[in-house]
Amino acid sequence: MTATPVAATLPLEVALIERLAAGLPRSPLQRNARHESDAELLQLPGSNALIALTIDGIVEEIDRGLYTDPYLVGWMTVTASASDLAAVGAAPLGILVSTVLPLDLEAENLARLRQGIGDASAASELPVLGGDTNTGGRLQTAACAVGFMPDGAPLGRRGCAPGDRLFASGPLGIGAAFAILQLGAGGPGAAPPHYQPRARLREGQLLRGVASAGMDTSDGALVTLDELMRLNGVGVRLERRVEDLLEPQALRIARSASLPPWMMLAGPHGEFELLFTVPPDRCAELMARARSLGWDPIDLGLVVAGPGLTLAPGDGGRLDTRRARDLFVETGGDVERYLSELSRLAGGVTASRIR
Amino acid sequence: MTATPVAATLPLEVALIERLAAGLPRSPLQRNARHESDAELLQLPGSNALIALTIDGIVEEIDRGLYTDPYLVGWMTVTASASDLAAVGAAPLGILVSTVLPLDLEAENLARLRQGIGDASAASELPVLGGDTNTGGRLQTAACAVGFMPDGAPLGRRGCAPGDRLFASGPLGIGAAFAILQLGAGGPGAAPPHYQPRARLREGQLLRGVASAGMDTSDGALVTLDELMRLNGVGVRLERRVEDLLEPQALRIARSASLPPWMMLAGPHGEFELLFTVPPDRCAELMARARSLGWDPIDLGLVVAGPGLTLAPGDGGRLDTRRARDLFVETGGDVERYLSELSRLAGGVTASRIR
After folding, report:
1. Which residue has the higher pLDDT, B292 or A4?
2. Global confidence as pTM
3. Which domain holds residue B57?
4. Are A25 and A138 in contact (CB under 8 A)?
5. Which of A246, A249, B3, B193 is surrounded by the fewest CB atoms within 10 Å?
């Protein structure tokens, strides 16, 4: 498949959304531009307060066999939306859940789905406000989460500048590692790691007024970096080796599957951490606030003027994040082919470790 | 199939939702009890203002062949959620749309889907704030609408008392008539009528402070009446013949299909009007407000102490709305069997007109 003219200017999955949303009128109360925020931000009439809204369906993850445990489906139904609230720094208010339940869904599986929803709802402080139940051929869910910002100062994807530091809210790579093993591309007999990410809601609220830009890694860290670089017209230089950024299990899985560590940063399935940028004169404030939560943000590197992602010395130099981002769509979701195409992206040391 | 113990206390589709939602903790900010409001009502922290939230999936309607035109899918995606906002009297703020698009969806059908969403968004004054796009085997949509009530006085399903008048916001029956013909149960060669309901948002806002209870007829008027009677512990006596309440096309279709007119009030596919009750001393105020919109509410009859629905003299007496409501679930969605079972519910004059 060759890149289409649209793909030349927009990432493929953004182009798909644009096909549906383009040309529709916008609300004068909406405070974010399309694709520039993880959640939609709406100013309440007669007030400076904002509500944050997000909708997210769990469909492909089930269809592709990525989520097979109904507990995980329930957990992720809530967590995916909660993470979008985290990325704008909203306080969680509640969530609505829409489900499509197969008529032959076993009672035990329904109970596990409910347990996953309930546990993530408690972990995210997002009470289930209501929902909608349909019957259908396959289990599917969608959720809409709502958050609140009384002072109307959200965190957005746009706002960073060269010189800002780039941070991750936690270790990376478990989302990709889980997907690779769950989908059987990690070699024979490899069991997937435990995957149950927590939405970084407290951390997100703490970042408001400190971070210059932020976004969650729901689609993997490379997609997030690509989007932040695209929207802000900047580049990123990692100053730490990727293996030092990875969750230990993700690194172990990369090694046992003979994959270069950076491939654990690729999407489209992520770890639901936050990537965010902080101006140099705000870094001390960030660290002070983080200590109050007992939280250790990971300093990844530097926002630079030049475009694109540069890996740390020894990790292979430049990485074409846009190309990496589009590859999953272009390979039609064939995981083996995706990993193989992805591996061609990086030359030198990295490629030599693949086989 | 016989009624289960759960069905003996709750309508079947309510019981299904309860299986998923039961036992989950509630938000202290939520102002409605479960099933007692068409939209979830959330008080904003530090304020008397409420936001109204609703989520609604369009899945079964597509799977069963009820909605085949992508324009109608798009229109109903917005309108179904908008109607829930109307039923609580909220001012519309915006809507989020989640879609599952088949990879082979033709460009023309995608354009029609978008047009339907856009037209209903404009008609309902609900700007599309954002959304989520998945790929999958079949077209599906879900939407989450948000509305606002600065003074925090919503319209709810509970609150009516014997002596209140019962009104409909407009003629009834087009939803059932459309479904019967669209699903091929209206006899050979009968083309379905045009079906494109408008959410009654302005009317709903006007009803706040006048109506004692209200609910939309998204699942048909009988379901709505059954729910209002159940929640309020009252009965309803219709004072007008059903044929005088029906949309003219719905009456024509009932006659040409040899179905009794009241069957056009059955669900599960409705006309998205509002049914609402007004205390006798507020009826003059209702009419004055309605005139300001150029709107003619239809006076259906009286809320009474005794349980159940009594049709007007000549329409066949009592009608078991609970049984009518559960029949569609019990017959597994087989439309011919549903209509046949439904027809047994009413005796006398009504039944004799079936064949």
Report:
1. B292
2. 0.91
3. 10-149
4. no
5. B3
